[in-house]
Amino acid sequence: MERAWRGGQRVLVNDLVTNGVICSVYFFKDRGCDEMTSIRLQAKLTYDLQAYVDTMYGGPGKGWFRIVTDSAQARDVIEQGKLAVVLGVETSEPFGCKQILDVPQCDRKDIDAGLDELYALGVRSMFLCHKFDNALCGVRFDSGTLGTAINVGQFLSTGTFWKTEKCAGPQHDNPIGSAAAPGAEAKLPAGVRVPSYASDAQCNVRGLTDLGEYAVRGMMKRKMMLEIDHMSVKAVGRALDILDAGSYPGVISSHSWMDLNWTERVYGLGGFVAQYMNGSEQFVAEANRTKALRDAYGVGYGFGTDMNGVGGWPGPRGADAPHKVTYPFRSVDGGSLIDRQTTGERTWDLNTDGAAHYGLVPDWIEDIRLVGGQSVVNDLFRGAESYLDAWGATERHQADADLARGAPATASSTEWWNPFTSYAPGRAVDGDRDTRWASEWSDEQWLRIDLGSTHRVGRVTLDWERAYGKAYGIQLSTDGANWQTVWSTITGDGGLDTARFTGTPARYVRVMGTQRGTGWGYSLREVGVHSD
């Protein structure tokens, strides 16, 4: 890492990573396999490393390896020429939130306690799921032999294998395939086999659960950044809807495990995207494919190495490859003359060894420059600024007032035949997602909200129950008699919708349904009305 820092790197996100099932089959472990226990230990060891580097460089605070807990502190560290280290978490069962036979093993109190503990440790970004479906969300799968082995691990941990369905949109999860993994499969109980999967059913049936939504909103309250790589596309879609409804920028795709169709949506929120540490030719090709988007949003680029993980790293291109790295070379920032690294009796050369360890990151970036030109490297060296911009915007985010909260609401009709539950219009503006308004079962229905006085209205959020509107519009009025349609759709698909439009003065807001998406009526858990 010191060599990477000397080569110009200024931001490093150190994810604390573990997996209880992999730990359980490891022969040489010296501790238990509880994932949160491992996370705590890794955090401690990272702080220990900071202290060790400080000792090498003359005392507390003097080392180049500096753990930071806010974006301003990171900028200060970088201005000193040091490496700003951000702590993240990437684990399959955070806070003990596993599921066994689809039954959650955690509750909201566990999530709040877990988020508070991680925040106190200095963690500022995290994944809610990793390799196994858990009580928070479904995963995006792995492919091939590794995928089969992980699917076995999922069964051993949860009692269920991955389940797939046909995808509802252009995004899809990774194909599982049917590759054998004899070593892993031998650990299955007698008579249990890994299921086969239809090639046209490439989406995880499990999305973001109610507990997962609670965790996302909890991260937003604590100004933490959500890593969406590894989430199923169904989970990512719902998470992005929640972030979009709150205009929350704290979203990251850090190592190419997100469906690339989500890229512009992440940029639109103000988030950050990085590519996996692929070989230079592949990295350049993907960077060029998305460059127009980066230029449109004025952002830089990042790379995720997955060092110490199970992913691969760039192999050697060969001593005779065109545009090979020539030693010594000057680092991109001009601060260092970099020759081959010697460790003990071993001398490393990217051309013949590949990116074998983190110290060869500067050599890999030089390889990218030689293969793809300075433009890709320039985007990478704007990456730290873009990451800190996203982090800073996350810290500054303030949830704006919901003008509809507690306001008087009326409706064209209310489902009345359930004697045990009220579906009154006011239930859609009471701030409680466990209640809802429900109409009678016909197409032409409306819900009207009286804001009490005239306000500027520019955004309306609609959290649908299963009975959603396929075709509906948002109408505004200053007097309750003359209405203006400011937004409409004929392709509604339920979930959480955010309608944005030019800010308009209004006292009354009306959701006007013209076509139902199901055989039921229209049902809204919550409607939010915002100025912008």
Name some characteristics of this structure.
single chain; 532 residues; alpha/beta; eight-stranded parallel sheet; 24% strand; Galactose-bd-like_sf; Metal_Hydrolase; FA58C
Report on this model:
The structure is a single chain. The chain is α/β, with parallel strands linked by helices and 532 residues long. Helix content is 30%, strand content 24%. The longest helix is centred in the first third of the chain and has 22 residues, at 35-56. The model has no long low-confidence stretch (mean pLDDT 95).
Topology:
Blueprint lengths: L1 H5 L4 E8 L1 H5 L10 H22 L8 E3 L3 H9 L3 E9 L7 E2 L2 E2 L3 H14 L1 E5 L16 H15 L5 E2 L16 H4 L17 E2 L5 H12 L3 E3 L5 H13 L5 E3 L9 H7 L2 E5 L3 H10 L1 H7 L4 E3 L24 E2 L6 E2 L2 E3 L2 E3 L1 H4 L7 H12 L1 H8 L1 H14 L12 E3 L25 E2 L6 E20 L4 E9 L6 E6 L6 E21 L6 E8 L2
Parallel strand pairs: 1-3, 2-3, 3-6, 6-9, 9-10, 10-11, 11-12
Antiparallel strand pairs: 4-5, 7-8, 13-14, 15-16, 17-19, 18-23, 19-22, 19-23, 20-21, 20-22
What is the percent of helical residues?
Answer: 25-40%
The portion of residues forming beta strands comes to: 15-25%
**Number of helical elements:** 16
The count of strands amounts to 23
Given as residue ranges, the uncertain stretches (5+ residues, pLDDT < 50) are none
Q: Judging from the principal axes of the Cα atoms, what is the shape? A: globular
Structural class: alpha/beta
Average of the residue pLDDT scores: 95
| Quaternary organisation | single chain
Ends distance: 43 Å
What is the rounded Rg? 26 Å
Largest sheet: 8 strands, parallel
